[in-house]
């Protein structure tokens, strides 16, 4: 039909041929469905340029209906390789049929639910505005990834904040971030503040491997602080402090 042909030209559908001709949805088409719903809900009025493109998500500038700048996190889990699908197999328990779109939506839903649980906290996290399918609308976060910071005046102070936030997350909200790296901590030099992002992999402290995953997080993070800022605390001591064994 004319509409299907037009969607194909706009790369919202992809045509394939075999024993018969068919069309499949593309991420551009999936984006359009989600954005249309967010528009109709009066959450997103317009979308601007990309702020960042990653393996599992894209970040876009956008505006709301009062012309305030907001951000959109568009989940792309499974876009890069099937390895990402295997990494997210915990999302697919009990689901016999899935594709990259359902995986992206499930990952986005999980992150939204975690952040929703934390909205009333004083933790430095994104503030939610809404979600549909694989897109989360949130406030603008000022800052750059910690890994890109070249001049950190008090790196130990920043690390101590992260440890305290991890302790609050663990005890008050029963959560482990599970991907707490220098890429998921944003630093605002002007305010000397941090924001912790990317929660789709967060797990409950009831998870049998919760403490091991917490230790893995800080092993990776301490490697960064050791190599770049020459700070090398003992991982075992910090994990024991967070979980309350000291």
Automatic annotation (TrEMBL):
<dbReference type="InterPro" id="IPR015285">
    <property type="entry name" value="RIO2_wHTH_N"/>
</dbReference>
<feature type="domain" description="Protein kinase">
    <location>
        <begin position="45"/>
        <end position="246"/>
    </location>
</feature>
<protein>
    <recommendedName>
        <fullName>non-specific serine/threonine protein kinase</fullName>
        <ecNumber>2.7.11.1</ecNumber>
    </recommendedName>
</protein>
<feature type="transmembrane region" description="Helical">
    <location>
        <begin position="20"/>
        <end position="39"/>
    </location>
</feature>
<keyword id="KW-0812">Transmembrane</keyword>
<dbReference type="GO" id="GO:0005829">
    <property type="term" value="C:cytosol"/>
</dbReference>
<keyword id="KW-0418">Kinase</keyword>
<dbReference type="GO" id="GO:0046872">
    <property type="term" value="F:metal ion binding"/>
</dbReference>
<dbReference type="InterPro" id="IPR000719">
    <property type="entry name" value="Prot_kinase_dom"/>
</dbReference>
<keyword id="KW-0472">Membrane</keyword>
<dbReference type="GO" id="GO:0030490">
    <property type="term" value="P:maturation of SSU-rRNA"/>
</dbReference>
<dbReference type="GO" id="GO:0030688">
    <property type="term" value="C:preribosome, small subunit precursor"/>
</dbReference>
<dbReference type="GO" id="GO:0004674">
    <property type="term" value="F:protein serine/threonine kinase activity"/>
</dbReference>
<dbReference type="InterPro" id="IPR011009">
    <property type="entry name" value="Kinase-like_dom_sf"/>
</dbReference>
<keyword id="KW-1133">Transmembrane helix</keyword>
<keyword id="KW-0460">Magnesium</keyword>
<dbReference type="InterPro" id="IPR018934">
    <property type="entry name" value="RIO_dom"/>
</dbReference>
<dbReference type="InterPro" id="IPR000687">
    <property type="entry name" value="RIO_kinase"/>
</dbReference>
<comment type="similarity">
    <text>Belongs to the protein kinase superfamily. RIO-type Ser/Thr kinase family.</text>
</comment>
<dbReference type="Pfam" id="PF09202">
    <property type="entry name" value="Rio2_N"/>
</dbReference>
<keyword id="KW-0479">Metal-binding</keyword>
<dbReference type="Pfam" id="PF01163">
    <property type="entry name" value="RIO1"/>
</dbReference>
<dbReference type="GO" id="GO:0005524">
    <property type="term" value="F:ATP binding"/>
</dbReference>
<keyword id="KW-0067">ATP-binding</keyword>
<keyword id="KW-0547">Nucleotide-binding</keyword>
<keyword id="KW-0723">Serine/threonine-protein kinase</keyword>
<dbReference type="InterPro" id="IPR036388">
    <property type="entry name" value="WH-like_DNA-bd_sf"/>
</dbReference>
<dbReference type="InterPro" id="IPR008266">
    <property type="entry name" value="Tyr_kinase_AS"/>
</dbReference>
<keyword id="KW-0808">Transferase</keyword>
């Amino acid at each position: 039909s004319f509409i299907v042909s037009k969607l194909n030209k706009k790369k919202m559908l992809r045509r394939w041929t075999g024993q018969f001709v068919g069309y499949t949805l593309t991420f551009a088409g999936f984006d359009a469905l989600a954005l249309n719903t967010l528009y109709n809900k009066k959450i997103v009025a317009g979308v601007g340029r990309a702020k960042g493109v990653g393996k599992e998500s894209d970040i876009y500038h956008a505006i709301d209906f009062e012309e305030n700048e907001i951000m959109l996190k568009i989940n792309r889990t499974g876009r890069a390789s099937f390895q990402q699908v295997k990494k997210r197999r915990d999302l697919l328990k009990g689901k016999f049929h899935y594709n990259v779109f359902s995986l992206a939506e499930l990952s986005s839903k999980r992150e939204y639910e975690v952040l929703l649980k934390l909205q009333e906290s004083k933790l430095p996290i994104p503030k939610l505005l809404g979600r549909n399918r694989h897109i989360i609308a949130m406030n603008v976060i000022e800052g750059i990834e910690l890994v890109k910071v070249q001049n950190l005046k008090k790196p130990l102070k920043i690390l101590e904040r992260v440890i305290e936030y991890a302790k609050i997350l663990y005890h008050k909200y029963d959560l482990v971030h599970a991907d707490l790296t220098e890429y998921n901590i944003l630093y605002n030099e002007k305010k000397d503040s941090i924001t912790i992002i990317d929660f789709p992999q967060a797990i409950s402290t009831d998870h049998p491997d919760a403490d091991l995953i917490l230790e893995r997080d800080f092993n990776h993070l301490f490697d960064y602080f050791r190599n770049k800022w020459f700070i090398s605390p003992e991982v075992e001591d910090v994990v024991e402090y967070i979980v309350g064994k000291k």
